[in-house]
Design brief:
Shape: globular
Structural class: mainly beta
Radius of gyration: 19 Å
Low-confidence stretches: 1-37, 53-63, 65-70, 83-89
Order of helices and strands: EEEEEEEEEEEEEEEEEEEEEEEEEEEE
Distance between the termini: 40 Å
Strand order of the largest sheet: 3-2-1-28
Helix content: under 10%
Largest sheet: 4 strands, antiparallel
């Protein structure tokens, strides 16, 4: 029942560093520290996988190949840690990515350029992970996993659940069972860390095709680790983002653009679904800028920009059509510049978000998928 990826993608966020090899005791290739910031990219094709370093002038990367990596990671989500944890306590904080290929979390130590994979409890029989988020205090990562349905493979069925990764010990210290008959999609914490929001896209199983009429957002009290409310979202609830002030949670209908045609805002002070907006071009994934004033929604034909105050579209960014997977974004802290990755096609765009104009388009040279992340 587990899905595997033949082409990989990665999202890390990190300290200024250098090209590194993936999943190995890695040597530094070209030590670099740029005061203006750095982009890193990961590519994976059928021959090799590698990280590479790119300056903010969007020059094409020089790859560092890791021939020891036989399989491409399948990166679903990432966490930006607020402070140093684990072995990187004297330098840049550890950076984490959710890797479905290993059914666990990968940690990058930017001081040594090494990776550590932390497999979910259950090993190869672990439920498939779909999303993760870090508690705002930086103490743990909560990994959201879909349900295991009755099967003939000898794997014990279980409801959707959350596995808790303690970052000090780098071990899993507990699980939280979620209600039966939900199709878990995304988990996001409120900025104060008191509440976690889990979207349920309404699919019958395995997070594949959402059914808006059955969708909802679960409100989970972090202290008691219990679901305290279910917010019906009849227009769908798939990928979600939290506003920086924690006042609004935004979710798009379903996943991977399948029938995704609605944006919904949830008022977290009342935990009720509020305004909705129709998305004529569908939706694949969504990102919010650092000031919480704009939503950037990936569609098959490009990016649409929504004003969060009115939930109205105010602009579009002309790009090549986006693939259904491997799409990410990173912003400068002031929100003035963004890099939008159409990683399924190996393209990324540097965009001036004040004018919504593409400044630079970079097409990678490989067929594999990639992702970039910024350190500013």
């Amino acid at each position: 029942m587990k899905r595997r990826a033949h082409l990989g993608m990665a999202l890390l966020a990190g300290g200024c560093a250098a090209s590194v090899l993936l999943l190995a005791g890695c040597a530094v290739d070209v030590p670099v520290k740029e005061s203006t910031g750095t982009l890193y990219e990961f590519y994976c094709d059928q021959q090799d996988s590698y990280f590479s370093l790119v300056g903010l002038n969007a020059q094409l990367p020089t790859k560092t190949v890791n021939p020891a990596t036989a399989d491409c990671p399948f990166i679903l989500d990432r966490v930006l840690p607020a402070h140093s944890t684990g072995t990187a306590s004297t330098g840049p904080p550890l950076q984490y990515m959710l890797d479905a290929a290993i059914l666990g979390v990968q940690a990058l130590d930017p001081t040594t350029f090494t990776f550590r994979g932390m497999h979910l409890p259950g090993g190869g029989n672990a439920a498939y992970p779909v999303s993760m988020d870090m508690t705002p205090d930086g103490s743990s990562i909560w990994v959201l996993q879909i349900a295991i349905q009755p099967n003939s493979n000898g794997i014990t069925p279980q409801p959707a659940q959350i596995s808790i990764l303690n970052l000090a010990s780098q071990t899993y210290t507990g699980t939280i069972a979620l209600p039966n008959n939900i199709s878990a999609d995304t988990i996001r914490f409120s900025p104060d860390g008191a509440t976690a929001y889990i979207s349920n896209n309404g699919a019958p199983f395995n997070n594949e095709t959402g059914i808006p009429a059955n969708s909802s957002v679960l409100v989970l009290d972090v202290a008691s680790q219990t679901v305290v409310k279910t917010i019906p979202t009849p227009k769908g609830a798939g990928f979600e983002v939290m506003s920086p002030d924690g006042m609004e949670l935004y979710t798009i209908n379903n996943n991977l653009g399948i029938g995704a045609n609605t944006l919904t805002a949830i008022d977290t002070t009342t935990n009720t679904a509020g305004a909705t907006a129709f998305l004529s071009g569908g939706a694949i994934k969504m990102f919010i800028n650092p000031t919480g004033t704009r939503l950037y929604i990936y569609q098959e034909l490009g990016i649409v920009v929504f004003d969060t105050a009115t939930l109205q579209q105010i602009a579009s960014i002309k790009t090549v059509g986006f693939s259904m997977q491997n799409n990410f974004a990173v912003f400068t802290p002031d929100g003035g510049t963004a890099w939008f990755c159409n990683c399924g096609y190996g393209i990324y765009y540097q965009v001036d978000v004040r004018t919504n104009q593409v400044v630079t388009t970079t097409q990678t040279q490989d067929l594999g998928h990639g992702f970039m992340f910024g350190a500013f």
